């Protein structure tokens, strides 16, 4: 973390988190931090449109689905730092590949840049980063929002994350994320802290709930346990709902927030992305939960507390109650697409 900050400040570069980021490796309140890179081709290409780019420790830095054109311009000088020879230059052309410990490499690069880059140039670069960040702010925030269907009482994913930001003590919360289609709302609207966020790096489902219980068990073994929040999509939750039995049997203090749109939205989105057209052109077989699974009752059957949250106004009180209670809680928060 310190090495990454040293390199950023020595070079005056803007900083982004890799596509499908699974952890926070740079302070998101630093003035040179801009955003995580989105999973779509257009936004990824826009954010990586630069003359020189350094990939540090990146392994999944490519779009969720196959992209039609290169994400990185052929004229962009690309440097890749990784401890894994298999990952070196795997997804992009690399002009300089560095195999080694990322922290040590960044520290050495920062030291060299301190001598080679004058302070005026460094200051000018940082000013450009701040200006770029301001220009992109609206675009990045919009990526985490969904238009609210007229008359729909359910919360948006953005409203859910905004309420989480208001209620949670971000300095004392550990987020385990498998929100899938709700993920980018979390990445763009919640003040994620270093060593307080873990997520999957691919499109697999089912990891998040067991990982949340594992995180709660680990926190319980510390001198000052943090609140553990599982942020798990309904489709992901239903892979291993019996995980809550373990949480209840061990009386673990974990709060699972389920952004529940009652369908496999990721499969629908991927179908439209790959095949084109609109939703009206397809019969999505097996992608809607109809009848829906009663997630609160399912949680209660395994010994946890379960609660259905149907409107935005209910989210805050429900989350506060869960955080103030000992043991496992599952909040089934209805959200629209």
How would you explain this protein's 3D organization?
- This protein is α/β, with parallel strands linked by helices and 337 residues long.
- It folds into 2 domains: 2-143, 3-Layer(aba) Sandwich (Rossmann fold); 157-334, Rossmann fold.
- Helix content is 38%, strand content 16%.
- Strands 7-6-8-9-11-10 form a 6-stranded parallel β-sheet, with helices on both faces. Strands 3-4-5 form a 3-stranded parallel β-sheet, with helices on one face.
- Helix 12 (312-323) links the parallel strand 10 and strand 11 (329-334).
- Helix 5 packs parallel to helix 12.
- The protein is globular.
What's the helix and strand layout?
Blueprint: H1 2-11, E1 15-17, E2 33-36, H2 41-47, E3 52-56, E4 77-82, E5 96-99, H3 102-116, H4 119-143, H5 157-167, E6 173-178, H6 183-189, E7 197-199, H7 208-220, E8 227-232, H8 234-237, H9 243-249, E9 254-260, H10 265-275, H11 295-301, E10 305-309, H12 312-323, E11 329-334
Parallel strand pairs: 1-2, 3-4, 4-5, 6-7, 6-8, 8-9, 9-11, 10-11
Helix pairs in contact: 1-3, 5-12, 7-9
Number of E strands: 11
Q: Supply the CATH architecture of the largest domain.
A: 3-Layer(aba) Sandwich
- Assign the CATH superfamily of the largest domain: Thiamin diphosphate (ThDP)-binding fold, Pyr/PP domains
Distance between the termini: 35 Å
Mean pLDDT level? 92
How many independent structural domains?
2
Q: What fraction of the residues are assigned to beta strands by DSSP?
A: 15-25%
Q: Widest sheet: strand order?
A: 7-6-8-9-11-10
Structural class: alpha/beta
From the 3D structure, determine the CATH topology of the largest domain.
Answer: Rossmann fold
Residue ranges: pLDDT <50 for 5 or more in a row?
A: none
Q: What form results from the Cα inertia axes?
A: globular
Q: Treating each run of at least 4 consecutive H or I residues as one helix, how many helices? A: 12
CATH class of the largest domain, please?
Answer: Alpha Beta
Order of helices and strands: HEEHEEEHHHEHEHEHHEHHEHE
How is the biggest beta sheet arranged? 6 strands, parallel
Helix content: 25-40%
The gyration radius over C-alpha positions equals 21 Å
